[in-house]
Amino acid sequence: MHAEVSRWRSVWRQLPLLVALVALWLLLWDHIDVLTVVTGVVLAIAVTRALYLPPVLLSGRFNPWRGLLLGLRMIFDVVVASLQVAVYSLLPGWKPISAIIAVQLLTRSDLVTTLTAEAISVVPGTVVVDIDRERGLLYLHALGTRTKADLERTHRNVLGTEERIVLAIGTHEQAEAIRQARRERRAAARDIRSKEHR
């Protein structure tokens, strides 16, 4: 009886991954019929059984308001970055300066890391080139990094994206850790500003 319960629990945990793989299969075929759905389900089961994938631990929590803010901010970032890249490409004397930046994420969740990397790569001008899963590091290629302020802005944008994702779907512990890190960053920024004004 216990083995049967644990087997069903394992299937339930894998369900979001199976659904995502079937949805990806349907998007690749660009139409939905019985054969496409059945082959998608069969392939999704075969992939999850044949290839080892680390378990995706879902928090079971979703904040609709934070999810809406995350979506709106993603749209805003994509539109603004698209316009910037378009303007830069039309400027005759503009020479792009780019950099590879390492950003230390605040969480170690595989799901949050993956979603953060995807969200960053969707925005024109930045793309994640490598992930150090063990240390929680993202390496990204970023355009428009002429000054130290540009690098710091890109770093803040990545941490801000991670923060919005955690507040939308992360665990309560992750959300509290993110809020605490934000308070510490703001306190450090205030200290720097007060020292500069002296």
TrEMBL record:
UniProt KW keywords:
Cell membrane, Membrane, Transmembrane, Transmembrane helix
- Family per similarity comment: Belongs to the CPA3 antiporters (TC 2.A.63) subunit E family.
Pfam families (UniProt xref) = MNHE
- State what protein this is by name: Na+/H+ antiporter subunit E
The record's subcellular locations are: Cell membrane
Q: Does the keyword Membrane apply?
A: yes
Q: What is the lineage of its organism?
A: Bacteria, Bacillati, Actinomycetota, Actinomycetes, Micrococcales
Main location as per UniProt: membrane
Per UniProt, what is the membrane topology? Answer: Multi-pass membrane protein
* Membrane-spanning segments: 12-29, 35-58, 70-91
